[in-house]
Structure formats: C-alpha cells, structure tokens
Amino acid sequence: MSAALAPAAPLHPVSVVGIGADGWPGLSGTAREALCAAEVLIGGARQLDLLPPECAGARVGWPSPLRPAVPRLLAEHRERRIAVLASGDPMFYGIGRALAEELGPEGLHVLPHPSSVSYACARLGWPLEDTEVVTLVGRPAARLAASLHEGRRLLVLSADAGTPAAVAALLTSHGFGPSRLRVLEQLGGEGERHVDGIAAEWAHPPGDRLNVIAIVCRASADALRLGTVPGLPDEAYEHDGQLTKRHIRAATLGALAPAPGELLWDVGGGSGSIAIEWLRAHPSCRAVSVERDPVRAERITRNADRLGVPALRVVTGPAPASLAGLEAPDAVFIGGGLTAPGLLDACWEALRPGGRLVANTVTLESEALLAERHKAHGGELVRLAVAHAVPVGGFTGWRQAMPVTQWSVTKPSGSGARSYKGDRS
User: Fold this and answer.
1) Helix (H) or strand (E) run with residue 153 in it
2) Inter-CA distances, 230 with 108, 240, 260, 275, 340, Å
3) For residue 211, how many C-alpha atoms fall within 13 Å in the half-sphere facing its CB?
C-alpha cells in the first residue's frame, strides 16, 4: 500500500469474489454470504448482472481506464463494506493484483472461483502445469509470437470476440498456419460452446466475447525455426547491415546474463537484436533500445513485434542525451557510438550496483577506449572472431568476419546508481 493512499484505505477488508459464467449458482456459500453482506458491490457490468436481488449493496461499475480508478473508488467507499467481483480466479490476471498493490494482502479477503484456464484444461485433458498461458487482454496480439514452437500447447486469454481471428492470422503470418485452434466460449456456463479449426483456414465469424483459445502449434515446412536461447538466425531480423550477428549476439547475451524482471539499456540499437533477445529470455524482462536514426528506430519496433516482444520501448535520439530520465538499468549494452563524449560515463553512472555493462566494438579507436576502462574498472576484455566456410573455386575455405572486441564488467555493489540526469556542466 502506498503511503499516500494509506489514510483512505477501507476500514474493513475488501472481499474479492471470483465468479464464473455459471453465475450465482456456481458460487460457494461463503462467497454468497460475502456478496450479500456487502454494502457496495464493484465490478464489470456483466459480472454485476449475474447477482440476484438479495445482493442489496449499491452496484458500482468499473470505469475505463480501470487501473487509475481503483484507489479513488476504494477511498470513496472506505467506511462501507466493499465486495469486488472478478472473473474466475481474481489473482490470475485479474483485479486481485491491483487491489493487493493498493491494500496489501491483509486488506483483502479473496474467494477464488475456478479460472477459465482450469476449465479449459479440464475440457481438453491438458495438464495445467504443462500448458503455457498467454493473455491478450489489454495487450497486443504480437506478444503471442514469442511462444510459438512446434508441438507446444498454448491457452490464449482473449480480449474480445475478434481475438480468435486475429490469433489465426498471426499464426499464419509467422509460419504456423497448420496449427489447430479450439475456441472455448462461456466456460462453465449454460451457453458453453466450442469451435474448432486450422489457423490458415479460419473462417468462423466472431462468437462470444468471453472465450479462451486453445492452440496446438504446428509449423509449416518453410517456417524459420526460432529457439529459446540467444542467437536467433540473422534472417529473423529486418536490418540494413547494422545487426549484431548471430554468434556474437549469443556471446553478448551470455555476458549480459538477463534475469527475470531486470531492465536493459540497449544503446545504439541498430536492429534491436540484443534488446529483443533479452526480452525473449523471460516474460518479465524489460528493455529500452536507444537509436539515433529514426528509420532504424522504426525498424526496431517492427522487429520487436515480429519476434513477440512488443513491450520493447524504443527511444529515438542520440546518446547520451537521450538517456536522460530513464530508469536506472540492471544491465547496459553499448553496440555503437562508444566514442561519443560522455557516453560510457553516463552508462556507468546510471547502472545499478551489481549491474553488468557490456560493450562491443570493431574499431581501433573504440578498442583503445575499452582497454583504458578495463584497466580502470577491471572486468573481462575478450576478442571474438568468427569465420564461415565459403566456396573458393572448386574448394572450400574460411572467410573471417571482422573480429569484435568485447568488454564486460560488473559494477561493484557499493557503488551508487541513479537515473541519468544529462550533462550538468
């Protein structure tokens, strides 16, 4: 709970009641008692309409946007007993998270209902623990792309009745047109209905807006294989030559060592490959790509969407000036512009204690700068060289790519860190 909201917190624990498509008959006795005792009932219009007259509390619908309204509504009704309605399990992609952030667990009494995911796995015979869930509620469909792998079972939480068609189109455009889809509507309710089809042949009209999409991923023969570890094929990216190539990229991500929840600054984004593969490492990873060229910045955004990480933030402008005001990072990658005045200092200053900085270069001038910083701060200085077998007349020989000098270093835990404020001279 934030200090600013503490004085306005409700006097009684807020009951958070999960309700399914089966409505009032599907609720437990405890859940019914909580709703009948509430003086204020907050929820979506569909959820409130499921309650019988004996739930006599004042009914308050969520406004849009919902999240900013949560503290205001709680404060307005703080002296009354509040019950909040949620779809299924309130703590699974539900309103329970926002309420817990405002009030803390001690301020809530959560009464969950089976989630739509539990119902779907029960209908399909899929083990819940082996089924990946992707929500598209309030999120772009592009994020589904990161989860597409041959044979993988996915459950997609739909935003509305149009989501199944959008998912089918995305699967087809990403080489997964042969995938089988099953749309499960109104799970657990009297109007439950299932619709099946193949993504590339999807022609079903929009059905009920309350639906979950089950996908068994099948790749077409010509689909580009994208693995789960760093080092995606170079062909996966749209680029103009400004691309950290596959083998160097894998070594760079290994040095950056992404971990859940961490934030990366990718400075001199180029095609965005380092930030994109950082984000693909874990759904909670965050990244900012800084690129001075507007054309390349737009290309980074397209690559991020294509590869399933539309949450990548792209900042267009020169570094270090464009770093001003950004949240302090857990890791920094510098792939270009090392000799820009103040760039290395700005990145080092902003880096959190224990954070990692990795810089790559192919020029002698930048290499000398990295050697100087290695002497001052330690870390590891390595040269990475890759050669490819190519035809030489009727034979085969090696073609050496330009070697890359890489400096990687961890900032000592005792060092300070703060968001970069820009040039203060």
Assistant:
1) strand 153-157
2) 41, 21, 15, 11, 28
3) 23
Q: Where are the beta strands (DSSP E) in 281-403?
A: 286-291, 313-316, 331-334, 356-361, 380-384, 387-392, 395-400
3-state secondary structure of 217: coil
CA–CA distance, 412 with 410 (Å, rounded to integer):
6
Q: How many residues does the chain have?
A: 425
**pLDDT per 10-residue tile (average), the chain, 425 residues:** 54 95 95 97 95 96 92 93 96 94 94 96 97 96 97 97 98 98 96 97 96 98 94 96 94 97 97 98 97 97 98 97 96 93 96 97 95 96 96 95 96 69 46
Is residue 118 helix, strand or coil? helix
Output the six-digit token pair for 145. 């792309």
Cα separation, 379 vs 372, in Å, equals 12
Residues contacting 352, CB < 8 A, separation 6+:
328, 329, 330, 411, 417
Number of Cβ within 10 Å of residue 367's Cβ equals 18
Q: Give the other-Cβ count within 10 Å of 178's Cβ.
A: 18
Single pTM value for the model: 0.90
In this predicted model, what pLDDT tens digit does every residue of 270-322 receive, in sequence order? 999 999 999 999 999 999 999 999 999 999 999 999 999 999 999 999 999 99
